[in-house]
Input
Amino acid sequence: MSNDARTDHDPFVDLQGSPEFDELRTRFRRFVFPLTGLFLAWYFLYVLLSTYAPGFMGTKVFGNINIGLILGLGQFVSTFVITIVYVRWADREFDPRAAALAKTIGEDHR
Output
């Protein structure tokens, strides 16, 4: 397979090296990496407690509801919360900047 169709000026490569793209990538990483780390820590805490502290996880809170069940359901809740937080952040911060960069590519690529 060859790259015979490639030109000397590739606007996508130019954009990737631009300060605006670097800023967009930095903003994304500053938001996503800590949130991902927080969720993974919370998940592994749940797994470790389930494995090494079954007595604690089996502690009844009320009726047949125990701490393990509450924390397990909390995993689902936290996934939805993280999704909602990310979507709101992306709508407000990330998407407008990405759209502006995409517009510059469209103008340069005509």
Remarks:
- The first strand starts at residue 60 and ends at 62.
- The first helix runs from residue 11 to 16.
- The two ends are 26 Å apart (CA to CA).
- The CA atoms of residues 60 and 66 lie 4 Å apart.
